[in-house]
Design brief:
Elements lengths: L19 E6 L2 E6 L10 H14 L7 E6 L4 E3 L4 H9 L4 H17 L5 E5 L2 E3 L1 H4 L6 E4 L4 E3 L13 H5 L6 H8 L2 E3 H6 L5 E2 L5 H10 L2 H8 L7 H4 L1 H8 L4 H9 L3 H11 L3 H16 L3 H16 L2 H12 L17 H5 L16
Parallel strand pairs: 2-3, 3-5, 4-6, 5-7, 6-8, 7-10
Antiparallel strand pairs: 1-2, 8-9
Length: 360
Amino acid sequence: MVRPSADAYSGEGPVTGTDVLVRVEAGLGRITLNRPRVINALNHEMVGAIAAALAEWASDDRVRAVVLDGAGERGLCAGGDIRSIHTDASAGGEESLAFWADEYRLNAAIARFPKPYVALMDGLVMGGGVGVSAHGSARIVTERSRVGMPETGIGFVPDVGGTYLLSRTPGELGTHIALTAGQISGPDAIHCGLADHFVPSDELPRLLNLLAEREVDAAVAAVAQDPPPSGLAAEAEWIDRCYAADSVPEILRRLRGSGEAAASAAKEIESKSPTALTVSLRALRAAAALPDLESVLDQEYRISSAAFRTPEFAEGIRAQIIDKDRDPAWSPASLAEVTDEQVAAYFVPLGERELGLAAH
């Protein structure tokens, strides 16, 4: 694939007719994900365009801050383009591995970007959408925000730095989010450290105007409000107690005996891929001990590369996205059948194919 060059996006005004609009306006580097019919799902070209723009803007004196938003009314980003990944996997291709490598490099670049990076996390923000927003320096949520990492529902594992973020939430809230694949609210995202500020959605146009006139901190302070209470924070007692267990079967056992909300979480988890659940728990525990985002992204690339070659991943996408029968035939079909050897295979170093972010 030919990558977009940085200077293709350096002019004033929008680049039209593309899946991502990149332009400089009033001192702001503006990035708008522009696939509203699919809730701005990310493809490889979009990742390349964003990365090229950030590489240029890092040293461009015209740009004092970056603002990311999404076209349409439904959300910032529904995640990666899963249909394309399914087609690639089914055909025995390699393009998805290149996509993930570039996507994870972009996640790291966002986290270390030297200027303010403002992400408007309005509406749905899932999977890859979390990757292009929650590593920013000023992450804005609204009353419409629904944030989540849905990967275990499709036989996959939280990626794009998701295991880094979720392993660093208060207590075991991140483990709960990862294993249930549930969506959380804007106030929940703030409590979990995935977002910073709550701004009512009808104030976002005013925020954009203020960002063009003021420094980021001052602009945000003028419109941000105290968020409503976090529902997840109110559930922390049973979440922390149940998810502190060292295995998914033990987590489920504790959940089933801890009240109605916990039993409901257990039911959600039981519908997910047994292999993906087991790998996800190990990935979260390992991520908590890794020193930085780059090290976690390297681990996630090993996991994603292994998952891409499993029937589990293709079956999960088929059931949830392609046929939509919501009845995946997981194999192994139960947690008891998942072996240590199967789980360990997801963490094997890739040799020359290592992502290698932590080495830079």
